[in-house]
Amino acid sequence: MTLLCSRRTALSVLGAAAVVPVLAACSSNSATSTSSASAASEASSAAGAATDAATDATVAADGTVPTTIPDGMGSGEGDDVFPRTVTHFLGDTTIEAAPARLVIISTGQLDAAVTLGVVPVGATSGDGAGTVPDYLPKLFPDDAEALAAITDVGSRTEPSVEEIANLNPDLILMNISGKDAESLYSSLSQIAPTVATQGTGQYWKQDFLLLADALGKPDTAQTWLDTFHSDAAAAGEGIADDVTVSLLRKNGDRTRIFGAISFAGSVLADMGVARPDTQTFTDDTSVDISEEELDQADGDWILYGVQGGDATELTDMSLWETLTAVAADQAVQVEDDPFYLNAGPTAARFVMDTVSETVK
Length: 360
What we know:
single chain, alpha/beta, Rossmann fold, five-stranded mixed β-sheet, three-stranded mixed β-sheet, 15 helices
């Protein structure tokens, strides 16, 4: 029998996406990112508060996906106003003019920048993914040539500072997740103004808005997000309240189910789509399961991704054929990058469209 969490229950657990949770203010600091060497010493004191800031934001989020920039962050300026000073997770950065040579360090930020009409000159790769995920040139064909010309500057956790410097960027975007953020920020700030978002799928909306502020496009990003929320709610109306959708991913030795505050899970919540009761958790974005625990991935529908695309990594598991969704021919392989790797706005719309076209 399919484990069931009703639409009403799912939304009460997660909180409707339109609700604006108030995050605890990040610890204030006076570090200012510039291209001068003095930024390196200032970055150390600013970065020291980063872990506390991220922890505070996580606690204050209380099981929701934040839809606003954390209190005290951003510039307070509208679109196209320069210079602007952006307060972020590692300090205060003054950006003198609209960026013309952007370098992206973290997953999802490339998606966000391109969504806002800015194609960077450099970006990172990693976690088994390429520099530019396949869905971006498909969805932005006019930018395909520029996307293909992006220089790979190494992994998102340990990018090549030398390669980045060689690109002469006028703005660098990074996040504080999964890396030595303090050291990296210190190094990057000596090259160009650097802005740090929080990172991870739970924070994709607030990070999109903060990134947009750095690019001088906060109003454009807010309009995009407002439209997305409306479109997601409308798209979800075509899915019955009692139909559950499971999120499952296989990458390497890991098999995971994704909860309510995961990236794709947040899109399902915006659509009002119910989840199996094994996937309503909000204390983490995902949970690793063993092959013997594959029943935790069951639902009326299973939308599964496999890094590298080889579906047999899941479908050859001994319990696969016993799952309700599989028996009903409602286990569907989805594109791994936008669902499970790139927590950006265009990926979110890709997930929304895929769900609305697939789940009936």
